[in-house]
Amino acid sequence: MHEIWRQFRRDKRGNYALMTVVAMVPLMGGLAVAVDFTEMNREKQMVTNALDAANFATARRLTEGATDDQLRAYALDFFNANLNDVDPASATLNVTLPSTATGGGLLTMTAQLNYKPYFYPAFAQLVGKSATDANQNISFNITSQVRLKNTLEVALALDNSGSMTTTGTGSGQPRIDLLKTAAKQLVDTLALQAAMIKQIDKPVQFGLVPFAASVNVGAGNGNASWMDTEGLSPVSNENFDWSTLNAPTKYAQQTNGIWYKRGTGWGATEGQMLSRFSLYRDMQVVTNHERVVNSKRVVCDQYNSNNTCKSSHNEYDYIDSYGPFASWQGCVESRPYPYNVNDAPPAGGSANTGIGVGDPATMFVPMFAPDEPGNHWKLTQDPDEAAPVTYGAVNSWWNDDPSSSSGQSRLRNMAKYFQPRPIDAPALPTGNGPNYSCTTGAITPLTDVSVADGQTAIKAAIDLMQPNGGTNVPEGLAWGWRVVSSGEPFTQGRPETEKGNDKVVIVLTDGANTYYTPSSLGYSDPANSKSTYASYGYLNPGYNGTSVGRMFMGTSSAIGQFDYSNGNYTNALNEQMATLCNNAKAANILVMTVALDLSTTKASDQLAINALKSCSSDSRFRKDPTDPSKPAKLFWNATGASLSNDFKEIGNELSNLRVVG
After folding, report:
1. For the packed helices 473-484 and 603-615, what is the interaxial angle rounded to 10 degrees?
2. What is the average per-residue pLDDT within 46-54?
3. Structural domain tally of the chain?
């Protein structure tokens, strides 16, 4: 090209040559620019494609748990491999990883392309530019951003206590019905978004934890590895004295911490373990008391002086048929401190962390409300002669041993459970029996709502909720945490180390935490248990040989360990709840709390409001309207009239965690 230019300049054959030279300068420049522009755009597009591909691929690796160094190396390799015929030496890559450790955020990649023109340098020198200026590369930056697609795991820990039958303020509907509607709308909102996410398995999952005085883990889990099937937990025998089974041919013997049936009197069940589960199996009730035909015999009661019968009565032989009295309905007791306020794995635990390793107290114990001293009856051949005696205990449901010396020994006596309940025994009040305080439906584990069957299942479980019983918010929250956790008891949650996944527990209650003394409910306390039976058992005589009730373990000096009053029980539960909330949030659980129809002018309600607000996490998106320098608390003080809109706000908060890039 340079030679052509010199020839044009030397040509002396008239003005035509000069005019041609002048005209060719812009033509040649335009051609050079056009060629280089086309090539530059082609390389830019290839770099853009390689950058986007590397960003999406790296985002997937990030959610799989790769380290920062691994991610940067992977991004560079993927970027270079997809540049095609662009020289990797002409392109550089900068990777900015999300700053949040809890998942989500932006993964940003910037590539700089140093394009070296083909024809432009010659043209530039032609018009007088220096070789240095003419041969400069053209540099430009390309940026690609991928917002990580958060997966979401939500446990709905919802109050199913008896007060939820009350009409919601300003609504005209029972609180439980308002809650069902709001909760199902929340599921629908998140399910609609989840259905649009095709790249990720189970993008949104919901679990349900109905709670009242206890939590039901499901009767089908009776043989689960995390249940105390052998009676090894210190909680298991808290109210039972197996040594009272001491007949010569039918007695109990403890070996390596486990009680066994010993003696020939047990028949085919000799050698079996004795536990709460075995009690449910062994208790029998007479289902049919049938008189044997032609078995009548006359028994003389009083004789005349001539040895003739003065008065008599008839006796008969009977054949009894037996059936099971009760079965475990699925509720469990609270674990002893500190396991009641953490997510320590049950028994065996983790050898790496040392949490709960080999400690039977980490196991979950089935609820079994002991028969309290109360209605017992005289066993005779003739059912018409049964004579019930009333002591006024809150949960008397079996025949006591009248030879026991005290109410506590009557409560702990185990021999009574192996005497069949007569067919004519007094009818039990509703709810009484070994499943006393087990009033809720079972937990629904995390369920994928991006598919129709999952969405239908979780909503059906919400519809089945029925209010009954007291209020134990910390137990509901604890099981909400266990539902979204990746470890046992429920293992549907993603690993805690997986980035881009949020674990959320939404807690709603309409009242303060409650635990009751028998007298506050109008009953006597013949066993001196100091409380009715619920998830923390009885508060007297104490836990595992101590004088301290399980509810008081781990509480501050402000809680009187021998203050047996409803108010002190509420204070103790509030402290357990505060510790639990802090532990859950420290484990990156996002806690959202809702107070329903609690009044700020009522002292007990205000205490509950404060506890719920303190328990809640900080919003990642909203600011506190009263102090914009602080994040808003994920707490809603709802009324019956506002609950639906409050749950829509919760949906908006959760939707922000699911932004799709």
Report:
1. 20
2. 88
3. 4
